[in-house]
Design brief:
Layout: H1 3-28, H2 47-50, E1 67-69, E2 76-78, H3 82-86, H4 107-116, H5 123-127
Antiparallel strand pairs: 1-2
Amino acid sequence: MDRRAFLMASTASLGGMAFPSIVGAAKGRKKPAKSTILFFLCGGSSHVDMWDMKPEAPMEYRGPFRPIKTTAPDIDICEHLPMTAKQGKHLAIVRSVTDFGRATGDHHAGYYYNLTGNVPDITFRTQGNNRRPYSTDAPYMG
């Protein structure tokens, strides 16, 4: 057996012996959740049709789909999301929109704000869709 094969076999056997105790220790402690799933539907379905339905609104404002109940009280979502509706008590649905008086009419500025938490600067208004990322831009998810 050459040196490389010996080291690989030794390491594998030592790791194998420690594995049950590592798994057992991990099962004993419960950590708080540190993850979030973000549904950022760029170019996806309209939020009014899926998440913020307005069934009582006039025909020209509401979408074509029907609302269904979720497991959260008083929260309805689109009929096309039945499995998501079953998880309703775990959802945090954000149904508010604001521009802080800096309306640009540009979706990219909204993406930037939603994904970084930073209010877009004036270049989003002056350059619009032609704006390229700057090295000073905040990092974002995506």
